[in-house]
C-alpha cells in the first residue's frame, strides 16, 4: 500500500495541554507520525511519496471561508503584540452568549472558532495543517489510480474539526476534505468509517444533513468520554441525511470481543449502502495502553480490524487520526493496513 507523508508536520508542535487539571506536554506530538512512518518502512508496507499541492479550493469545499482565514492569520495576529508562546483559546460562547457578532480581537476569535483548548496554534501550524490536507488529497488521488487502497499519514489529525471550528488537536478535517473531493470527482456515495477512540464530532456535523456521505463512528460513550457533547446512539442524521449517520458509543473497558460486534454491524451497514469508496478515520487510541483512552484493544486486534474493513472489497483511503501510545502507534496503525491487505 502506498503511503503519503510530509515532514511538514514537524512545524506543528504544541507545548502543553490541560489534562487532569495540570499542564502536560501535548500528547499530540511530532513523534507520533515519525513512529508510524518508521513502522511503514520497517515492514515494507509499500512506497512512500510526498504530497502535491492542491491549494485551498478543496479545503473550502468543507470549511467556512472565515474559519480558514482565521487559521491563516491567527499566528501573526497572536504574535503581533509580542507573544511567542502557543496561541490557545480561553473563552467560549455557550448557552445564551452571542455568536452573531464576531469578535475583532484574536483572543476572542480563538474562542469563536474552537470548542476546546486542545488546539495550540504555533508559528508553523498553518503550513502543517495545509500539508496534512494535501497528504489526504494526494493519497486520495493515488487511490483513484490504484482503485484499492492508500494511506494518508496525516498529522495534525482532523476528525474533531467541523466546518467552522477546531478542537481536539484538529484544525482541518482531512477525512472530510478527502470524502468531499471523492464526491466532486464523481463518486456517488462515500462512507466514512471512524475507528478513532473519540467520536468524530467534526466529520459527523459536516455531513449530518447529507445522504451522499454516510458517517459511522465507534467510540467511547460521550456520557463518560470526550468530546462529551456529540456521538450518542440517537443521532441518526437530519433532513436528507436522516438514516445516514450511525454512532456506536461503547463503554470504558471495551475489548476486541465487544468492539468487533459493533465493527461488524458498521461494516454490514456500509455494505448495504454500497459506497463507491470508503474513507477510514484511522485512530489507534483504542489501544489498551493509550495514555488518554480507556478501551482494551491489543496489537493483534488491529490486524483483525483491517481484515474486516478489507472484506468490504471497496477502494479505501486510510487517514491517520489519533493514537497516543507512541511506542505502539506504528505497530497498531500499520497492523490495520497489513490486515486490510491480507
Ligand atoms: C484526534 C484525537 O484523538 N483527539 C483527542 C482529543 C482528546 N482531548 C481530550 C482528552 C481528555 C483526556 N482525559 C483523560 C485523562 C487521563 N487521565
Ligand atoms: Zn482520538
Automatic annotation (TrEMBL):
Q: Which superkingdom is the protein from?
A: Bacteria
Domain (Histone deacetylase) ranges: 28-336
Keywords from the named record: Hydrolase, Metal-binding, Zinc
- Write down the required cofactor(s): Zn(2+)
Q: Is Cell division tagged as a keyword?
A: no
Fetch the InterPro entries from UniProt: HDACs (IPR000286), His_deacetylse_dom (IPR023801), His_deacetylse_dom_sf (IPR037138), Ureohydrolase_dom_sf (IPR023696)
Q: Does the keyword Transferase apply?
A: no
What start and end residues bound the annotated signal peptide? Answer: none
Q: Member of which family?
A: Belongs to the histone deacetylase family.
Output this protein's name: Histone deacetylase family protein
Amino acid at each position: 500500500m502506498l503511503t503519503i507523508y510530509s515532514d511538514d508536520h514537524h512545524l506543528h508542535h504544541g507545548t502543553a495541554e490541560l489534562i487532569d487539571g495540570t499542564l502536560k506536554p501535548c500528547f499530540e506530538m511530532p513523534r507520533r507520525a515519525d513512529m508510524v512512518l518508521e513502522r511503514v518502512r520497517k515492514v515494507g508496507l509499500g512506497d512512500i511519496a510526498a504530497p502535491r499541492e492542491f491549494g485551498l479550493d478543496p479545503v473550502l469545499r468543507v470549511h467556512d471561508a472565515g474559519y480558514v482565514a482565521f487559521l491563516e492569520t491567527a499566528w501573526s495576529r497572536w504574535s503581533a503584540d509580542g507573544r511567542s508562546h502557543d496561541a490557545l483559546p480561553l473563552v467560549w460562547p455557550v448557552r445564551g452568549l452571542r455568536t452573531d457578532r464576531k469578535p475583532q480581537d484574536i483572543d476572542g476569535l480563538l474562542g469563536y472558532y474552537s470548542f476546546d483548548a486542545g488546539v495550540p496554534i504555533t508559528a508553523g501550524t498553518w503550513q502543517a495543517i495545509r500539508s496534512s490536507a494535501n497528504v489526504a488529497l494526494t493519497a486520495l488521488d493515488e487511490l483513484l489510480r490504484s482503485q484499492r487502497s492508500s494511506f494518508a499519514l496525516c498529522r495534525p489529525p482532523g476528525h474533531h474539526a467541523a466546518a467552522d471550528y477546531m478542537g481536539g488537536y484538529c484544525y482541518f478535517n482531512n477525512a472530510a476534505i478527502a470524502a468531499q473531493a471523492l464526491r466532486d470527482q464523481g463518486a456517488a456515495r462515500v462512507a466514512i468509517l471512524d475507528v478513532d477512540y473519540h467520536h468524530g464530532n467534526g466529520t459527523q456535523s459536516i455531513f449530518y444533513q447529507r445522504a451522499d456521505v454516510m458517517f459511522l463512528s465507534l467510540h467511547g460513550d460521550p456520557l463518560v468520554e470526550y468530546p462529551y457533547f456529540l456521538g450518542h446512539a440517537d443521532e441518526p442524521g437530519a433532513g436528507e441525511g436522516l438514516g445516514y449517520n450511525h454512532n456506536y458509543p461503547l463503554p470504558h473497558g471495551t475489548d476486541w470481543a465487544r468492539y468487533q460486534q459493533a465493527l461488524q454491524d458498521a461494516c454490514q451497514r456500509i455494505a448495504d449502502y454500497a459506497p463507491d469508496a470508503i474513507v477510514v478515520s484511522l485512530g489507534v487510541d483504542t489501544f489498551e495502553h493509550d495514555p488518554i483512552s480507556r478501551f482494551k484493544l491489543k496489537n493483534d486486534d488491529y490486524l483483525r480490524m483491517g481484515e474486516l474493513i478489507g472484506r468490504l472489497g471497496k477502494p479505501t483511503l486510510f487517514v491517520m487520526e489519533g493514537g497516543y501510545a507512541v511506542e505502539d502507534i506504528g505497530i497498531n496503525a500499520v497492523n490495520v493496513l497489513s490486515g486490510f491487505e491480507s
